[in-house]
């Protein structure tokens, strides 16, 4: 991204950990008002790229920390008040059982460690989505 948007986004991204899994991140990294939230809001609201594309751009920039939240994921998992914080909580429950299960699935599939647990979750949700053409009923 170029121009003022690129500069603003780059500044926000500098404050968002690049090497941290969501399961290990402090809650302050993904709460409303955080730099991650501000980056999403900048893209979604001010530059009208839409909530899905804004989220996917950030998930691409921080694949271990920020999950994809698109129409299929929303249909499968609902509309929590804060998807990032609720997913973080779920990944940490029971001694990080869900996070470890996602890493086990990655290994079973023979995927490289560069594929994040969040990306495994995204693919699993898409594959399991029951609606025709991945549309919500």
Describe the structure.
With 137 residues, the chain is an all-alpha fold. It has one domain (3-131). 58% of the residues lie in helices and 0% in strands. It is built from six helices and no strands.
Low-pLDDT runs of 5+ residues are: none
Give the count of helical stretches: 6
Largest sheet: none
The chain-level structural class is: mainly alpha
Number of domains: 1
Radius of gyration, CA atoms, in whole angstroms: 15 Å
- Principal-axes geometry comes out as globular
Give the termini separation.
Answer: 36 Å
Beta content comes to: under 5%
Order of helices and strands: HHHHHH
Q: How much helix is in the residues?
A: 55-70%
Average of pLDDT: 91
Number of strands: 0
Q: SSE layout and pairings?
A:
Layout: H1 3-14, H2 35-46, H3 51-61, H4 71-77, H5 83-108, H6 117-128
Helix pairs in contact: 1-2, 2-3, 5-6
Summarize the entry for a quick read.
The protein has six helices and no strands. It has 137 residues and is an all-alpha fold.
Features:
mainly alpha, globular, 137 residues
